[in-house]
Amino acid sequence: MPQRPAYTGRFAPTPSGYLHFGSLVAALASYLDARAVGGVWRVRMEDLDPPREVPGAQDAILHTLETYGFEWDGPVLRQSDRHEAYAEVVGRLLAQDLAYPCHCSRKQLEGQAIYPGTCRDAHLDRHDAAIRLRVPDREYAFVDRVQGAFRQHLGREVGDFIIQRRDGFYAYQLAVVLDDAFQGMTDIVRGADLLDNTPRQLYLQELLGLPQPRYLHVPLLTQPDGHKLGKRYRSPPLPAEQAAPLLCRALRALGQAPEPTLEQATPREVLAWGIAHWDAGRIPRQATLAEAQLR
Length: 295
Description:
By secondary structure, this protein is an alpha/beta fold.
């Protein structure tokens, strides 16, 4: 029987747009962290929300990764192919009364900091309902490899959260936990905007008897107006002809110190340098980083 790799990581983009510089920093951090220890690196397409998906974005994302020199292990996993697994778990949680149907509309919940529990004990019909997970009156804590200790009280700070939307689509929190376990992820490297999602995922892992990976949240790159670099703010896509310089810039964002001559190298040469010199301890220990500072 083949031995399980000591390190398995992944990059999991959402095809609601094309890759931008913020995506590149996250992809590079996860890639180097895996390859520097001889680990496995996978790509997963988080296509949970078809109405928000941009036509052609999936192919464009994969093509950009290839252009920038990234090589992943095994086939690309698409969450759209995993609905049966999600449905089985939602059904099980409902049967165990660990989750419940919720008929509350967004308008009804407007102004509420957390879900007030309106439908928690109402025993409503599942038809035309979202499914919420009951959260315990407990604090969940973990130590992030960059951001340090993080804790969150699920009952007071989050409330019962949705695992399946009213329109039938599955929620990120459920899918990411099931897919990370399914793919044997030992390490999750992603942007700091997902830091406060982690306690919810820890609870789901505990509830479902799944292993807990190590976490590393890299600083989120922000624009001059304070918004994060992202698809919704029309951050520019990654140009193929700028692959090496942008990889070097992404290395600098991660606290690494690439040699200036690498900007004239090939993308794979930049990545090879990054693997040989990777030091996660040099990543800035902060939640956000102004993208303009890296120019």
